[in-house]
Design goal:
single chain; alpha/beta; Rossmann fold; 6 helices; 14% strand
């Protein structure tokens, strides 16, 4: 018997739109930068796409409170005519670096990483990658328990990466720093089969940006 796909409760993962840290090599995500002009256009295009996908459906938007995600979410929610819920646990990987430190200064503090990564941290004072993986799974579980409708999660590359890894069952011992390509303003979709099995239905979908003739420059910084 074929698995029946449950079409009623997907979780849509949206990475924040282009931020200043994506185009300026002196800015790191720990400095809490905002969106660029292109990023604001990307966020609007993403919001319009979500309006199409969620027409006549009930949904809740959850977001990281960090500025680049906050600004993305506000633009998206204006299109959706929705009020978001901000959750601290959706913040990006916590480096523990001061906001005054630029990227070049931060790189001097990076640790040499080796496997397994679960107990490794990118620099002294940062959370371990195991901590990030655990946090990603816990916040995703919390949203699943709280939400009976469609859920949209607006967050950051590294934690979304670990959410997907947790969802499809990667063991903690096998996680990498970056496992999936997740671009600015992209949409990924987590779903369940009719038998409750976890499925990655869509990954890094940027078709809505291409249709809107919005360019996708390569990010200088992936950790943000």
């Amino acid at each position: 018997m074929e698995d029946k796909i449950d079409p009623f409760a997907p979780i849509l993962l949206v990475r924040h739109a282009q931020a200043e840290c994506n185009i300026d090599s002196n800015i790191g995500g720990w400095q809490n930068p905002g969106l660029t002009a292109l990023g604001r256009s990307q966020a609007k295009s993403t919001g319009k796409q979500l309006v199409k996908e969620l027409k006549d459906k009930e949904f809740t938007v959850y977001s990281s409170p960090l500025r680049r995600a906050y600004e993305t979410t506000k633009i998206i929610c204006k299109e959706l005519e929705s009020i978001p819920v901000f959750i601290d646990e959706l913040k990006e990987y916590q480096t523990g670096l001061p906001p005054t430190m630029n990227w070049d200064e931060a790189e001097k503090k990076w640790n040499r990483l080796h496997k397994p990564l679960k107990n490794q941290r990118i620099c002294s004072g940062a959370e371990t990658f195991g901590d990030l993986y655990k946090r990603a799974g816990e916040v995703l579980s919390y949203i699943m328990e709280e939400e009976t409708n469609h859920a949209i999660i607006v967050s950051h590359a590294w934690i979304l990466d670990k959410m997907i890894a947790w969802w499809i069952g990667f063991p903690l011992s096998e996680i990498n720093v970056k496992m999936f390509g997740i671009s600015n303003a992209s949409i990924s979709e987590l779903s369940l089969t009719g038998f409750g099995e976890h499925m990655l239905k869509r990954l890094n979908d940027r078709a809505h940006l291409l249709e809107s003739n919005i360019n996708h420059p390569i990010n200088l910084q992936d950790q943000e």
